Amino acid sequence: MNDVICISDLRRMFAEAAKKIRQDQAILSQLDCIGGDGDHGTTMVRAMKQLEDAMKDENAKPLNARLKDAGWSVLGVDGGASSAILGSFIAGMGDAEMGQESDCGRLAASLTAGLEALRKQTRAIPGDKTMMDAFVPAVQAFAAAANSGESIANAMEYAAEAARRGADATKDMIAKYGRARFLGEKTRGSPDAGATSVALLFAGFSAALMQEKEA
Question: How far apart are CA 189 and CA 202, in angstroms?
Answer without folding.
Answer: 23
